[in-house]
Amino acid sequence: MSRRSALGVLAACCFCAAAPAVAPAAQTAIGASMRPSLLPNRLGASTALTLAFEFSGGDEGVPAPLSGMVVRLPSGLKIDLRSVGTCAKSRLRRRGVAGCPAGSLVGRGHALMSVHAGSLAVGEEATVTIFRGPDRGSRQTLEIFGQGETPLDQSSISTAVLEPDSAPYGSKLTVSIPPIPTLVLEPNASFVSLSLTVGGVGRGPRAHAAAGAILVPRTCPTGGFPFAASFTFADGSTAGASASAACP
To answer: Between 34 and which of 6, 104, 163, 241 could a Cys-Cys bridge form, CB atoms 3.0 to 4.6 Å apart?
Structure first.
């Protein structure tokens, strides 16, 4: 569906949804959860890392648009993309996924977003493709390309920078997320859920993984491998989440 026709459909939904005014629902704090997993989960093994996030609450039950997040990874988890090609954000912006070299692909994912259409909140499905971006000094970067599927034909590019972190974490991904516009005079799109998988497993990568070396730590602390994330939203609110991946 073209962007113009998709917007027409949403505008029609907005018109049809017109109804007598009712008292707005009370705003609730935004909640966030995360679920990390490693496949395979074997000490010292090459693995695929999946990070799944869910968001809830907010005005009328819809979280505010996400503007950034910091994901903390356990000490000893190694991410090495030096043998992977790169794709610049400018190239992604001009040509989309097809414009990036195949050798720069490092992961895939999926997102569910909420788009306002008047009094309605419409679900927006999006595919996510992750490429290695140009290094920033000694810091590795990822370019995360999201492509809306239905009802809007809309794309966005987020940049993640990999940096060292303090114990019990070894590194962190700082992700800048741009506004994702929807309809004229309507709020930007909000994330409801997001799942990202990075890394490959030998010659048979996980279904949503690709190139790049991610290694499970050689030892596992009591309670499992710790992960944490903090989120910032366009309305200035924040949320946090933490979880552990079980020891092998």
So the answer is: 241
Residue whose tokens read 């005005």: 59
Residue 23 lies in a domain: no
Domain containing residue 239:
3-14+32-245
Give the CA-trace dihedral at 231, 153, 183, 51, to 10 degrees. Answer: -10
How is residue 72 written in tokens? 């903390």
E strands, 137-198, are 139-150, 155-164, 169-176, 190-198
DSSP-assigned beta bridge partners for residue 49 = 38, 198
Total domains in the fold of the chain:
1
Q: Is residue 192 part of a domain?
A: yes
Q: Tell me how far CA of residue 37 lies from CA of 78, 146, 152, 245, in angstroms.
A: 15, 22, 30, 6
Specify the amino acid at residue 167: A
For residue 50, what are its two tokens? 């999946």
Which stretches of the chain are assigned E, i.e. beta strand? Answer: 28-39, 48-58, 66-74, 78-80, 105-117, 120-136, 139-150, 155-164, 169-176, 190-198, 213-215, 225-233, 238-245
Residue 22 domain flag: no
Q: Determine the Cα–Cα distance for residues 90 and 74; give it in Å rounded to an integer.
A: 32
pTM of the entire structure? 0.82
Q: What tens digit of pLDDT does each residue of 94-124 get? A: 999 999 998 999 999 999 998 766 667 778 8
Return the sign of the alpha-carbon dihedral for residues 204, 208, 214, 215: negative
pLDDT tens column, 124-177 = 899 999 999 999 998 999 999 999 877 677 889 999 999 999 999 999 999 999
